[in-house]
Amino acid sequence: MFIARQPIFNDQLDVYGYELLFRLNSHSSQFGGVSSQGATAAVITGLYESGIENIVEDKLAFINFDEIFIHSDALELIKPDQMVVEMLEKIKIDAPLMARLQTIKDQGYKIALDDFEEVYHSYPLTPFADIIKYDLMVTPLATIAADAAAALTQGKVLLAEKVETQAEFQQAKEMGFTLFQGYFFSKPIIAGHSVSKSPTKLQYFKLISELKKDDPSYDALAELIQQDVTLAYRVMRMASVRSNHDLVSSIRYALTYMGLNEIERWLNILMLQDLGKDKPEELMKISIIRSRFAQTLAKRALLTYNAQHSAGMMGLFSVLDGILDQTMAEALAGITLPPSIPEALLDGSGPLYPIYELMAAYEKGDWATTLRRSQELNIEEYSLYHDYREAIQWANEIISNLD
């Protein structure tokens, strides 16, 4: 079973929930098994057994239902305060369906109409809907102004799907949309200037360059870190956490205790956090999830230890352009990296690119590419969901230690 998630933001770019994308196995259809009923049942059962909070944390899960599975008692396995029931756009509407929707609304579940293309006033399910989802690729904002206004007057929440640019995000906000889904938040806003020589970035690059030397010096690293009191404090704090709060007496001792690879990983994470202070926290979280997921995929593909470490860095830096509002080439300029990382991120080539493509495909729910790349890398299908879920948990632990 594959389960990935896509964030849904409010108008302050805080995560409101996650839409769950799923597929049962390599032999299934888009929704899995012989019908969408089987796939949704498997997802609901899997989420219940493994703990839905391990996938969506304390946010809402948006899960698709069809006219068959909406009648199943399995729906009630997930509590109303954990799930939004999404009705698929091609659903068959009849009296039993409308009665069931009223029942689950009375139980406290929120209902969303997915990929809404109908005439708002005449569609039979709009009275049951709490959230109306518009796919901006199918229904551009200019074509739905009247219906969106009508929905707002009736207290509906408007959700814009497939928002690809900041301009679309701003336009949708002005029209009254308050929920947003898409990759606009992870794309750079090129403002006509470069921040590549900012003091924070240069300081981190000096540290990374020292770490990439054939014989890195702990003394040189400690001296660079001590030039920034905030960075010094955070390194000491991390080392303390790693040592179960045993005495960590100096920066140099903290570095030797952690080891070079662990130092590099933490410094990269701290760099992204510092440089992305004005960005949604989810962007930082995605970079950490990708770091862990990519490194695990490289391990399962039996790449060398150094290649596994490079895969983790590649995943971590894969959203650096969005964090810095630069092109990826500008963002990576000045960082001493293994050639395989810029090859994957800039050129779509090199030994790490298959790992990158598998990671990105799984994240987006591109199951055809996921299956093809996992087979090419000899990675068992069943391990992907486990590894992805573990990467989410790991990222949450990392972020909690950064606060």
From TrEMBL:
Q: Which SUPFAM superfamilies match?
A: EAL domain-like, HD-domain/PDEase-like
InterPro entries in the record: dGMP_Pdiesterase_EAL/HD-GYP, EAL_dom, EAL_sf, HDOD, RNase_Y/CdgJ
Annotated HDOD domain ranges read 197-383
The EAL domain extends over 1-202
Among Pfam families, the record links this protein to: EAL, HDOD
Concerning Gene3D superfamilies, the annotation shows: EAL domain, Hypothetical protein af1432
Identify the PANTHER family for this entry.
Answer: CYCLIC DI-GMP PHOSPHODIESTERASE CDGJ (PTHR33525:SF4), PTHR33525
Identification of the protein by name: EAL domain-containing protein
